[in-house]
């Protein structure tokens, strides 16, 4: 890429991206893999610190990405078409940021060139969650956390 060329995430709309470009937008924060609670009356969404059983604790990536939808029926496959209808992506999510016309933050791997920057910036779930099978799923309200809703710096 020359200095005059814009990176693909600035030059293309989400629906124009190739599959590889689309997938590379995921920074690996894994906040979308946390169990979320929705208030039935207000629609307000709250994140817990309980993660999907398929989340790899070290990499913060899905341990069975190709088969995740079959193994976890609630898992959502994000696409440019359904992104508009998904309102629970965290404020730091690249898909959400770009949809809102914002740029990627400094710690995003496509900007920083370092996958670890997400973790070092404190934007990852790494070291801050329990797996579903380790948590008391009857006490989800006791596991509500606010850190996944931190906006990008």
What attributes characterize this protein structure?
153 residues; alpha+beta; 4-stranded mixed β-sheet; 18% helix
Q: Can I get a quick summary?
A:
Belongs to the UPF0260 family. The protein has 153 residues and is α+β, with helices and mostly antiparallel strands.
Number of helices: 6
Q: Secondary-structure element order, as H and E?
A: HHEEHHHHEE
Structural class: alpha+beta
β-strand amount = 5-15%
- Tell me, rounded to a whole number, the average pLDDT: 93
Q: How would the global form be characterised?
A: globular
> Major sheet, described briefly?
4 strands, mixed
Number of domains: 1
Strand segment count: 4
Radius of gyration: 16 Å
Q: What is the percent of helical residues?
A: 10-25%
Q: Could you list the spans in which at least 5 consecutive residues all have pLDDT below 50?
A: none
Rounded to the nearest angstrom, the distance between the terminal CA atoms is 26 Å
């Amino acid at each position: 890429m020359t200095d005059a060329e814009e990176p693909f995430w600035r030059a293309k709309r989400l629906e124009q991206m190739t599959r590889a470009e689309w997938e590379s937008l995921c920074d690996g924060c894994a906040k979308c893999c946390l169990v979320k609670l929705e208030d039935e009356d207000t629609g307000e969404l709250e994140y817990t610190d309980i993660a999907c059983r398929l989340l790899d604790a070290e990499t913060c990536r899905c341990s069975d990405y190709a088969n995740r939808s079959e193994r976890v029926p609630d898992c959502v496959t994000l696409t440019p078409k359904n992104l508009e209808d998904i309102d629970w992506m965290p404020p730091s999510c690249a898909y959400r940021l770009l949809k809102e016309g914002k740029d990627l933050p400094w710690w995003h791997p496509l900007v920083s060139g370092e996958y670890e920057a997400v973790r070092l910036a404190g934007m990852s779930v790494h070291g801050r969650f329990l797996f579903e099978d380790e948590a008391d799923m009857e006490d989800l309200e006791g596991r509500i956390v606010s850190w996944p809703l931190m906006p990008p710096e």
